Amino acid sequence: MSKTGETGIDYSHFISVRAGRRRPALTRELTKRQYGAPKESISLAEGMPNEVTFPFQAINILMKDGSTLSLQGQQLNSALQYIPTQGYPPLLKKLKDFTQQIHNPPNWQDRDLIMTNGSQDGISKTLEMVVEEGDSVLVQNPLYTGTEIVLKPFKPNLIGIDQDEFGIIPSKLIDALENCKAYTEEGGGKRMPKAIYLNPTGSNPTGITMSLERRQEIYAICCKYNILILEDDAYCFLHFQEEEPVSFLSLDVEGRVIRFDSMSKVLSSGLRLAWLTGPKQLVSNIELHIQSDMLHSSTLSQVIFDNLISAWGFNGLLSHFSYVRRYYQARRDFTIAAMDKHLKNICEWTVPTGGMFVWIKVHGVADVYDMLMTRGLKKNITFVPGHAFMADPTQACQYIRASFSKASLKQIDKAMKLLGELIKEEHLLLRRKLDGLENNILR
After folding, report:
1. Where in this chain does the record put each Aminotransferase class I/classII large domain (predicted)?
2. What pLDDT sits at residue 5?
3. Quick one: 152 and 203 in the same domain?
4. Residue 179's domain is classified under what CATH number?
5. Are 243 and 351 in the same domain?
6. In the predicted model, is pLDDT for residue 2 greater than 80?
7. Per-residue pLDDT, 443
């Protein structure tokens, strides 16, 4: 297998020493081969159990519209059996067609797709492929906390790139890269970053959706500095904009994007249905990791999803996503109205353009951690302190993440009312402390 893509990228640069040692398991390769073998082919190679020993006769799933998805016979056998590491072949074909329809990536022939147990699984395995201990890694700041916990064991130098209402700021990214370049050339002992992690649509925790112009700028910078783009787009079908956001995968003429798609937010989080798309050479290395880690992602979930797509078609699937989007948009609107009522003049925020969260800046409180985790919990309200999402979580932070996805509308209004009371009480406490300090100085 060539390590260099047709666009000239040396993909071995993005594969860590440990990941580069991975080799295919012969038994897994034979399983892959058997799925495409002629019907008359006889195999005594697989160590698969015989389906006749499974106690399941059928699995019937009643849908909310009254229809039924039914798995039985050979389809049920497939759902309960080992499959190739890459995924259930009929579903893989559908998802490749779906990806082409939605994103139309350039140079599709140079890319591949693989199923993962949720996008967290794909993100984790990709980072473990790319990152060496002590590496510098570019991240949006604030960032999804699940990425930070994957990186932490590698003792990385996390370089947080600040954001505005359009996403990460290009000039900040260039400054960070130029600083890294200067430090590297001076023999500082640190390598240039190889990857940037981005959550471009309905970002967790900010709710920001990166504009097309901003995506184009960021992509051009990554091409110039040879940076791999890790596009975590779990909320791509939960944007609240009139036009569909254009993905980094759609812009990727060079083959430097690994994209993570997930059904957790729009279909079911418990099914752990997700897939990643990227350059074939890099997807192949991730496949080797999955071979050694769990053989393959859940077959039952994949067959259920394949059955659902067959029943609904892509248009039906997109229609469901549209319903989910309207549902969350209405909840967002209610939440913002509650914040206008209870938090006006003591907080500020940007109205989320996607996702499930609003990112709140508290005025007059330099650090919200104790306020939320001590006095807030006593009021029976729980918000996430912004520290959890910062590239440097040890620094004081005046931001709060609030989710509008699950609590009832009545609960959301009450929580915002109590948060407003909590912040005003905090202001009073801080004022008393300041008065006490001044009195001590005067004495």
Report:
1. 77-416
2. 47
3. yes
4. 3.40.640.10
5. no
6. no
7. 55
